[in-house]
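Troubleshooting log. The previous structure file for this entry was overwritten by mistake, so regenerating from the original sequence record. Sequence copied from the archived sheet and checked twice against the printout by T.R.
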Amino acid sequence: MYTFFAGIALLIIGYFTYGKFVEKVFGVKNERDTPAYVNADGVDYIPMSTSKNSMIQLLNIAGTGPVFGPIMGALYGPVAFLWIVIGAIFAGAVHDYLTGMISIRNRGAHLPELASKFLGKVMKHVVNVFAVLLLLLVGTVFVSTPASLLHVLMNGKVALGIIIGAVFLYYILATLMPIDKIIGRLYPYFGALLLISAVGVGVGLVVTGAPIPELSLKNFHPDHLPVFPLIFFTITCGALSGFHATQTPIISRTTKKEKQGRKIFYGMMIAEAIIAMIWAAAGMSLFGGYAGLNEVLAAGGPGAVVSEVSVAMLGAIGGTLAILGVVVLPITSGDTAFRSARMIIAEYFNIAQKKFSSRLWIAIPLFAISVVLTQIDFNVLWRYFSWANQSTAVIALFVGAMYLYVAKKNYFISLVPGTFMLVMVITYILNAQIGFNLPMNIAWVGGSIGTAILLALFFVAAKKNRANHLPLDEDISDWNRVA
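Regenerated output below.
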């Protein structure tokens, strides 16, 4: 268990050390008014407490990612721990923090608007399509996933269609209602359930002496599996995920002071990584090895693993509560996925969202498309989503790097992980069957060359932006105050 405990310890230390360093590099201005006050509209821009914002942020970014992803990643062995820890501290938490804080400095803008400002107007349209597609896929899949888990939990006594309808109804209400009416009130309870279930499983692993494997040179590359770059597309939300960049602006519009950003954005990514560590450890240790885990996954998917682990660690009642904690994850990301999609579309077409009718006319087409998508097999689409998800993370990291470069600050904290993942996303799509299906050695060469070209273009644009004194932070005196 040394690797497991060391990983948890490093994540906590990372929050108090590297998280503090990233905050210092960015340079918070606690006296500066935030969009929650300046743009208050009673719908999306509403000041909320740090604890409430933190819990909403954790549930927004989580989905099933810190559970299902690490369970699948457990097939790679203890190297999964390595990616979760390093990825969360130096990539995922930096990604979330910079996205959230730059959004706060720019009226709570979403990623397409930020990409337009810092990477060029063409990127606004590209990222807008990417973001809305990602959110529709996430929202749709997170209708069927919790519905299926609840259907199993109820032993099939309630028809799956009825459960799906109930989830859709909740999503519609959460998407249209002011954020403090449903999300702000329910998420603290949902969050408590999630954390209690994760801690319960973690304690159970320790108390029962589960044989959590240690990282070594021998198992670093188990059974000669192609760990790189596949592991970066298997474990996403627990380490680095572009989906988070679509969620952080929701909370950038409800944050009271910039000083709260480290706890809300950086801290909740670290919390998610700890949850991912627990479920990865459970997957590695409770099924008699990787072959046993693979059998359970083949028979019932990650949901079956969650069910068996929860009952084994916590008993029938505790296991049921733990499963409910996992059910909460997709629901609390599905609702904010649709909410983010509405906000991004409204921002793109400059449609004010204070009126209920304005929100409704954007939401109706979104849910209509989602209902159609629930009838489609998502196996292939979800593979594209994994690639698009990490591509979005790269864009967000380069937005952060551009911001810091123009500000003459340490842009390497964002550029290094962004460049690393850029190599991975290009290499992956060149090698994958859903992409160009090239041999891996050629894919690596193509990924390296493509990254070098894009990196050169980044520096050309960055030097031009710095020379032209690109305004980084919008002047709050010019922000429209909405009564």
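The chain is about 75% helix and 0% strand. Archived copy saved in two places this time.
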